[in-house]
Amino acid sequence: MKTIAITSGKGGVGKTNMAVNFGLALANQGKRVLIFDADLGLANVDILFGYSCEHTLADVIENRMQLTDILVDAPDGLKILPASSGVLRLERLSMSQLASLADAMERLSSRFDVLIIDTGAGMTDSVLFFSSVADEVMLVTTPEPTAITDGYALVKVLANEYEVKSLVLLVNEVLDNKEAHTVHKKLSAVCGKHLGVEIRFGAGILKDTHLEKAVRERKPVYINYPTAPVSQSLRNFARTFDSVFTSQKNELAQKGFWNEVLARREQQ
Amino acid sequence: MEQETSQFLEAVLGGDSESEQPLSVESIKAKCGDGVAYWSDLELEDAFSAIGLNERQIERIQSTSQFDKTAIIQKLLDELSRTTLEDGLTKVYNRRYFERTMESELDRSRRDQRPCGLVLLDIDHFKNFNDTYGHDVGDLVLKSVATTIKNLLRSTDTVSRVGGEEFAIIVPNTFRLDAGFLAERIRKHVEEHKVKVDDKALSVTISMGIAMNDPKLITTVDELYKQADKALYEAKQSGRNCVKFSVSETETSSSAVTADERNELLG
Q1: Which of A24, A60, B96, B193 is the most interior residue, by most CB within 10 Å?
Q2: Which domain holds residue A65?
Q3: ipTM
Q4: Could you give the number of structural domains in chain B?
């Protein structure tokens, strides 16, 4: 299972929409996809789908339910792991809760090909946590200056404090592909020069009014408007998945360290 | 410690140590140095009496071969470094060791550009153990916590007892999150393993505060300690038995976007 944390420096760049519709495009092409809605700050994946979820992550963390019991079915076999809004703030989870959550998700690895983690925006501990434990981090930005600089700020923290050395860039709401490449070129140059971080080009997603329409209809655009430009962009992107998302695990020492601690405990 | 040292002298040299003169690693090192094998007997004799050996012990050393003399001195040095840097009760390092090591680790962190962390931890309501069960039980609790920490650390981490019921763990070459995991692991382990005293099983919990240095900036031991202490205070404030990170201004400022970076991004 490949884990991809989708994140952005700034809210409102379409991160959750990208996560959901990219997930659908992948599922549509035969991949077994799970979306973890880890963004409790703003929009929820379940709202985009028009579901309301009876059970949420809070039930799992408080040991009332198993992770597999709360998964929600979406089209094409896509599954959603809903977080709860309001009651439980992921930001407030303790280290051990985050770790056991990561463990629980690891256990799902045989059932899915791709786990998309829709993290919150900005630099809360949970965003940074999921970004640092995932195989890949996909940064979503728009061509807007503030979105770019906020995205860069997040990359900087991830590089400086979490040893993330390579990310995939998705530029949303572009007028054409050229604009996406211009944004990528700039970010990639500055990240390389100042942070030693590699920014790989993922995709440019066309600005498309269908997206907003679908949001109002509480259905994913990929379902309601499969031929709209935005859906086509995502479909093309999904086709490149295996060649774009090639990292196995970023360099976070977590794994090695974790094993060492576990090994020590077993010796006792 | 004094007693242990003299016991050691007896074991190594035979005979008793009558001297009351305190020994110090520095004084022996100053006297012996590395080239001890080349010292004349007279020089050696001076050195031995300077570190407080009595005449019988000196005679014994004098009658051994030059090779053994070096070995004996090395053993003495090792033992003395141990006893002067170790906490007598818990057998983890003491505050003196902590201060030295923290300083050199901060230097190294800057040199290698890899972050280094400090975890401070304090046993919750420790006074109650002493008051309720007596100091012997309090001591057992301290020993037990010290052992737990030691067993869970990675080979490069060190733990020191820096106060009555306070320990400091230096985690070199470690990123923030990993320091958090390590701390959480220890906290959980302490919480889940009761300390057995006679027929009682005592529940012990600890609070922890973590501060990370920024390898790009100069951080003093004092500054880092204060940050970790502040985080520890927060952990105590939010109900104890938990781990808190220090949010240092330095940490965030070095990750802030500079004017140069901004201009290049938008230019």
Answers
A1: A24
A2: 2-267
A3: 0.75
A4: 2
